[in-house]
């Protein structure tokens, strides 16, 4: 399994190379998940563009790393992008991954050709709601909130018809380190990109599942309204993680978005 050390933090990742001059796309996963949530999207893309997925710190097989802010997640992403020498990149972030993408753009806009912000916002939740979640997880464990969270992640149809997969995602969430989970909860709690979103100057697509209970469509539409020229799309029959529930629909949006981007800048020596 591929691992790389970025600034003292070991990150688990998967780097997919592609022929030609296609733009690279970097996928950033949500709170409580690892990069396997993108498996079906990557399969649909079929290697037509370079891709990077990784377990952000505190998740999956990556180091916990004492995470407490979005800036630390941005540090890791910045190091990964430099390690793989990715330029003219498209960032596709889901939930907290969307906050990380916005934070990276605010820091290094010259690297980014486009943003795909999935089921995310400029600010997610309230301090009270995140503090309550943190207190519950610290005192009772992730299992205490898992059932309620999965009701926001997936539609009632998924719960009824895809029970084995539901069990798998319950396992994914509950088996991660409490310190990584609550640290990232605190990072989301304190992140506010309301002002920064208004300064995004690259093509941006904001996507949300029609039944998302975590970042509802109206909230994601608000983000799209803040970003000059952003497009807004709703994916039917999906909740908070459309890359799992409706990977074909999300991949079509990704493919069309990337194809419509302006031609890559050419460097002449």
Describe the protein in words.
This protein has 269 residues and is α/β, with parallel strands linked by helices. It has a single domain, classed as Alpha/Beta hydrolase fold, catalytic domain (Rossmann fold, 3-Layer(aba) Sandwich), CATH 3.40.50.1820. 45% of the residues lie in helices and 16% in strands. Helix 1 crosses helix 12, helix 2 packs across helix 3 and helix 5 packs across helix 7. The protein is globular, with a radius of gyration of 17 Å.
Q: Short description, anyone?
A:
45% of the residues lie in helices and 16% in strands. With 269 residues, the chain is an alpha/beta fold. The protein has one domain (3-259): Rossmann fold.
Overall morphology: globular
Q: Could you say what the CATH topology is called?
A: Rossmann fold
- Which consecutive residue ranges, at least 5 long each, have pLDDT under 50? none
Helix content: 40-55%
CATH superfamily (homologous) name: Alpha/Beta hydrolase fold, catalytic domain
H/E element string? Answer: EEEHEHEHEHHHHHHEHEHH
Number of domains: 1
Mean of the pLDDT scores? 96
Strand order of the largest sheet: 1-2-4-3-5-6-7-8
Question: CA-to-CA gap between the ends?
Answer: 37 Å
Assign the structural class, choosing from mainly alpha, mainly beta, alpha/beta, alpha+beta, or little secondary structure. Answer: alpha/beta
CATH architecture descriptor text = 3-Layer(aba) Sandwich
Number of helices: 12
Query: What's the alpha carbon Rg, rounded to whole Å?
Result: 17 Å
């Amino acid at each position: 399994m591929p691992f790389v050390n970025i600034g003292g933090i070991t990150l688990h990742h998967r780097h997919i190379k592609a022929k030609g001059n296609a733009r690279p796309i970097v996928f950033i996963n949500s709170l409580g998940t690892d990069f396997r949530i993108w498996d079906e999207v990557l399969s649909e893309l079929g290697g037509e563009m370079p891709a990077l997925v990784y377990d952000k710190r505190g998740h999956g097989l990556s180091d916990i790393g004492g995470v407490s802010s979005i800036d630390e997640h941005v540090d890791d992403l910045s190091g990964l992008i430099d390690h793989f020498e990715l330029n003219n990149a498209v960032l596709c972030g889901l939930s907290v991954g969307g906050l990380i993408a916005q934070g990276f753009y605010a820091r290094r806009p010259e690297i980014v050709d486009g943003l795909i912000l999935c089921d995310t916002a400029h600010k997610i939740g309230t301090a009270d709601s995140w503090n309550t979640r943190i207190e519950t997880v610290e005192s009772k464990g992730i299992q205490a909130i898992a059932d309620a969270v999965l009701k926001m992640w997936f539609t009632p149809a998924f719960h009824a018809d895809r029970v084995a997969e539901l069990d798998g995602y319950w396992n994914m969430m509950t088996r991660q380190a409490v310190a990584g989970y609550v640290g990232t909860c605190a990072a989301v709690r304190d992140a506010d990109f309301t002002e920064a979103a208004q300064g995004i100057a690259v093509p941006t697509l904001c996507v949300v599942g029609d039944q998302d209970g975590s970042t509802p469509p109206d909230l994601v539409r608000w983000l799209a309204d803040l970003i000059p020229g952003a497009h807004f799309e709703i994916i039917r029959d999906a909740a908070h993680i459309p890359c799992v529930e409706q990977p074909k629909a999300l991949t079509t949006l990704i493919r069309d978005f990337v194809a419509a981007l302006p031609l890559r800048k050419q460097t002449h020596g």
